[in-house]
Amino acid sequence: MNLVPELSVRPLTGLPMFAAGHSIAQAICAALDAERDALRDGDICVVAQKIVSKVEGRTVALASLQPGAEAQWLAEATGRPAPMAQAILDESAEILRPHPAAIIARHRTGHVLANAGIDASNVEGADAGTVLLWPVDPDASARRLRDELQVRTGARIGVVIADSMGRAWRIGTVGTAIGCAGLSMIEDRRGRGSDLYGRTLQATVIAVADSLAAMAGLAMGEGDEGTPVALVRGASRWTTQEDGPGAASGLRPIEQDMFR
């Protein structure tokens, strides 16, 4: 029987207020050095989407947007300001359900979430209408960060970029992997494992990166904690030598979408 190793997660303290052009990898290494620690083979760095978007300059002033006819309709249907509706449309491949509680959209990357991931919390200038967008390509962002961390430390690690997302069948949000590198997004055990009674597993597909993102999200917090990076240890069984297919590999194909 395969024994699952003990997992540990801790937030990194002493990180700066990130802004465009900052190096997340440098900050992670400095924080670990201050704790007299360093990245080890098999470690996984879970990084909040917000700081990745900030260092990549993914802010937009809503006042700079000119809402079109579709944005005007969406604003009227949901009670949102028309510039925000336009921002959501600009970031979306498809609007799935407009609702006053949230505009459910399929993001350009394929992820389905509220308001195309656009957020104003913990964003400088939010009171004046500045909002934060997702990275253009979260998987590419994860690959770049992994590469820089591995060059700096020599350790073979995984990187997850996480954001809080709601779920169709449950109340509340959980950390979810939107970008992933050096880590299996899923573990497909169908036909390759058995239950306690020897029956072959038929439907078990484990969302590995999402589970680690959710665990790390509890450690990092969602408010003013100032700890947007968490270090997960004990999950080396899921790390990979190559970058891998990324978080996009965990998206359900549109033709299998049961809610369309």
TrEMBL record:
UniProt keyword list: GTP-binding, Ligase, Magnesium, Manganese, Metal-binding, Nucleotide-binding, Potassium
Boundaries of every Coenzyme F420:L-glutamate ligase-like domain copy: 15-234
Xref: InterPro entries: F420-0_g-glutamyl_ligase (IPR008225), F420-0_gamma-glut_ligase-dom (IPR002847)
GO MF assignments: ligase activity
Segments for region (Disordered): 240-260
Keyword Magnesium in annotation: yes
Pfam families referenced in this protein's UniProt entry, alphabetically: F420_ligase
Domain of life: Bacteria
Protein name: Coenzyme F420-0:L-glutamate ligase / coenzyme F420-1:gamma-L-glutamate ligase
Record organism: Novosphingobium panipatense
